[in-house]
Write a structure and sequence with these properties.
Pfam families: PK_Tyr_Ser-Thr. It comes from Rosa chinensis. ATP binds at residue 61. One of its GO terms (molecular function) is ATP binding. The chain is 19% helix and 28% strand. It is of the alpha+beta class. It has one domain (8-119): Phosphorylase Kinase, domain 1 (2-Layer Sandwich). It has a six-stranded mixed β-sheet, sandwiched between helices. A hairpin with a 4-residue loop joins strand 3 (44-51) and strand 4 (56-63). It is globular, with a radius of gyration of 15 Å. The N and C termini lie far apart (42 Å). Bound molecules: adenosine-5'-triphosphate. Adenosine-5'-triphosphate (ATP) is lined by residues 38-43, 46, 59, 61, 90, 106-109, 113.
């Protein structure tokens, strides 16, 4: 199945976050190497990466082909989350639309998921 495409020039959401060059994302994840995968959801795989010359840890969500979510949800996520800032909400910091890729970049949240904490999942990163 081919990836859903979106023309960056047509993609003009009312956003407060910036476009992120695909080259920086591929560099941060060594071209989406599986060793950088930290999770997967309806949107696609989530990768851990380092940007800004190693200064910033980020979580990179890459829309997978045939995702149960899609271009519409991608745009909605950017429009909503780029305008929301709260210490209890993960921050969307960048997005990327390029070469058929649709990618969301968030602050990296250490210490596991809410599910890990609620159900005491065996996660070595938890205290
Ligand atoms: N900002 C983040 N920091 C650290 N890990 C993250 C971050 N975002 C996602 N993850 C990891 O990736 C996994 C999948 O996240 P994602 O948000 O794609 O899916 P979900 O919320 O579990 O499910 P769905 O998107 O289907 O509702 C999470 O369970 C978590 O382990």
């Amino acid at each position: 199945m081919t990836k859903p495409t979106m023309n960056p020039e047509q993609f003009m959401p009312t956003i407060l976050c910036c476009h992120f060059p695909l080259e920086e994302i591929t560099a941060a994840t060594k071209n989406f190497n599986d060793t950088f995968i930290i999770g997967a959801g309806g949107f696609g795989n989530v990768y851990k990466g380092c940007t800004d010359g190693g200064a910033t840890l980020v979580a990179i969500k890459r829309l997978k082909p045939g995702s149960s979510q899609g271009a519409h949800e991608f745009k909605t996520e950017i429009e909503m989350l780029s305008q929301l800032r709260h210490r209890h909400l993960v921050s969307l910091i960048r997005y990327c639309v390029d070469k058929g890729e649709m990618i969301l970049v968030y602050d990296y949240m250490a210490h596991g998921t809410l599910r890990d904490h609620l159900y005491h999942t065996n996660n070595p990163s938890l205290p």
